[in-house]
Amino acid sequence: MTDRGLVVVGDTFFAGDPSARASWRLAVLMGANARTYKFALGDALLDLAGQGREEVTLAELAVPYAMGMVRHLTDAPQAPVNVALGNADFLAVARREAAESLAGGRPTEKLSKAAQRSMPTMVMEKFHNLRGVPGVPHRFYELKRDGHHRTVVLTPELRRIAMSEQGVLLRGELNARWSIVESSFAAGVGRGVVQAGMSVDLAQEFLIDKRRRRPVTRVSAALIGFQHGRCLICNELIVPVGEAVVDHVFPYAMMRRFESVGNWHGPDLDALWNLAPAHRPCNSAKTDTPPGRKLLTRLALRNEAIMRSPEPLRQTLRLSLGRALGDGSANSWNQIFNEIKAL
Ligand SMILES: [Zn+2]
Hints:
Blueprint: H1 11-15, H2 20-29, H3 37-50, E1 55-57, H4 58-73, H5 90-104, H6 109-124, E2 129-130, E3 133-134, E4 141-146, E5 149-154, H7 156-163, H8 167-186, H9 193-196, E6 198-201, E7 206-209, E8 214-218, H10 219-223, E9 244-248, H11 252-259, E10 275-279, H12 280-286, H13 293-307, H14 313-321, H15 330-341
Antiparallel strand pairs: 1-5, 2-3, 4-5, 6-7, 7-8, 9-10
The protein binds zinc ion (ZN).
The site of zinc ion has 7 residues, from β10.
């Protein structure tokens, strides 16, 4: 960590694992999303840094960036649907050039130019900021300008996280976040998934857009970044990603037991707030044991981090707990957990 000090948004999150990975997650998972440019940039950066690149031209970076955008915009909106796009808007250009770029496997000349023109101010200047506040404690690139020639220096921190065992995990969670934000755009601001939250298909371990009944992303990919890529049960890193299973922190057997006699007064245990990616062996060993204090502290911090991220995951948590949730801080989660334990 640098001497820039901790950011206000997500400070507890960063303190929980002060590392370049946590800075990256602050930028990707917790920043505001007026559009999805940040995800396309983040994915392109992990891609190039993962190949060991130290410096790329803006034109080179624009290739995976623009291709990511066109791939995504053929499936889902990349800005809220009620946002009007001007003709020169990068998204409007991307829409016009999408078919030809996808067919050719690389951005058309027009798309590449539009990307290079818009990237510096639309996304690169903002990536390290958090809701307008600079910024996350680590820098992942610097944009250099030499006349018309622009290069992007990829920092050692970026290369380290991209080439680490968790690099794949970071790309997975970035893409999960991208899908979640897209589904919030699909219905327009303030409606659909933003208001209704998401449900969980436990059999498939998928998050579901309730209103459109569409699978959005895997539960573990959506949640794992908020717990620093760690198994919530043992607190060790989960590598590789495929190893993660979804654990019920409060065992659902608890709810079923009470429910059979119509006596369960606690919140739904099959909901997102109670689900956590974990190692398979850790999950198997835990069986139906009630969670201990350390595990519940980690769950409180994980849920607090989600509550500080933009909609709609935050809303999904809020809907399961209602007024009992209070301000969504780790303290309010601990209070809820104590009440459940006393049931
Ligand atoms: Zn574990």
